[in-house]
Amino acid sequence: MTALSTRPQVAPETWLDRIGIPHVLRWGFIAVLVFMAGNGVESNFIAPHMAEALGSRAALVPTIITVYGVAVMVASYLSGALSDLVGPRKVMALGFVLWVVFEVLFLLSLGTGSAAAIFATYFFRGLGYPLFAFAFLVWVNKVVPVKRKGTAVGWFYVMFTGGLPTFGSLFALIAIPGFGGGASGETKTLWASIALVTIGFAIVWFGVREPGGSKRQAPANESTAQVLTGGVRLLAKEPRVLAGFVVRLINTAPQYGMFVILPAVIGGELGWSQTQWLMMTVIVFASNIAFNAVFGAIGDKWGWLRTVRWFGIAGSALGLLAWWYVPHMVAPGSDWGYWLSVLAGVIFGILLAGFVPMGAIMPALTPTHQGAAMAMYTTAAGGAAFLGAAVVAVVLPWGGNTGVVWAFVALYGVAFALTKFLKVPEDSSRGHQH
């Protein structure tokens, strides 16, 4: 009985198992998609929306978003640590409750225009989605066999990116004009996003019965303090984990940074509309969705590290430059120029998926402390939102938007250099590492 409760994979493999989605967690993947769609509804209009609510204090918006990124990073760490302590299922429930409570308070604070209230409620709402989504990623890593870890992580990011920002932006694209457009339509859309988040939670809570998700993952002889600090201690004593942490931190930072600078550029300065910007986002990250599982499978066959190094890092750097420069090279406001700009963004979206095998590399770097390693992986994944906004806040005043883009390219260069520390035995037979 013990073997059955801790190793659900002993049951006959299904088609879903074979393609990298653990059958026992299948509804959890759908739950992440729906929950993150609700979370992602705001992603491409929240900055100008907050600016309008704040009026003369609109300059605070980049700082508010940056501090929100701190909350995301803290919760991303706790998602792994708490999952080890009480099981990922309870952590997902905690994330849902925090998200809904502080989303309601945030929306009420927007109505008052109080900078302090907006600041505080948006910060605490940032704790919600990492606890929900990344606790599920920990769950996936506990269940899936090593030979399919890269693919399984790829499927997780299909759902994660499918929600944030892709289907979330698509929902906003339809809902904002449906609710009358303008600031009022945006506000009603934000209220509607709560329903999506609630549905996502209900799917996993009632649809996933894998027993290991409700149990402590950490060794019984470790204290609560040891479990909660395990990731930090591992980061301090294992340079390879630190290198992996930094690479994953850099991974999606440009994505979040572009969410800050591009809405006003694409949806205004260059002659296109907010609707066209939202549609561009949907298409760009739909391409990312389509290739997350593909690059996970490529990593399992061709090599996790090679995939990250050449597709994820080098490819994303080139794609980011294309997404920034192509819109500025075409005729402003033109239809052909818009679609060429969308294509440039799609290149970035596809190659960004090349980072997917990092989710398999991190726990493999330290096989005896996989939970702590995953805590640092999820911290970096959440911290990317902070880093992206922070780069904008620091570089924009003196380097402008173009300086921000090149700062992200420079960070990709740092990530490329750090990949030499990420070799793991499980990857050695999947191509030749250099």
Descriptive key words:
434 residues; mainly alpha; 18 helices; globular; disordered N terminus
Determine the fraction of residues in helical runs and give it as a percent range.
over 70%
Number of strands: 0
- Outline: globular
User: In this structure, how is the largest beta sheet organized?
Assistant: none
Distance between the termini: 45 Å
- Stretches where pLDDT falls below 50 for ≥5 residues? 1-9
Estimated share of beta-strand residues: under 5%
Structural class: mainly alpha
What is the H/E string? Answer: HHHHHHHHHHHHHHHHHH
Number of discrete helical segments:
18
Mean of residue pLDDT values: 89
Rg for CA atoms: 21 Å
Describe this structure as you would to a colleague.
The protein has 18 helices and no strands. The chain is an all-alpha fold and 434 residues long. α9 (149-178) crosses α17 (358-364). The protein is globular, with a radius of gyration of 21 Å. Mean pLDDT is 89; it is low at 1-9.
Give a quick summary of the entry.
Helices cover 78% and strands 0% of the residues. With 434 residues, the chain is mainly alpha-helical.
Give me the secondary-structure topology:
Elements: H1 2-6, H2 15-18, H3 26-40, H4 46-54, H5 61-86, H6 88-112, H7 115-125, H8 128-143, H9 149-178, H10 182-207, H11 224-237, H12 239-251, H13 253-269, H14 274-302, H15 304-329, H16 335-352, H17 358-364, H18 370-418
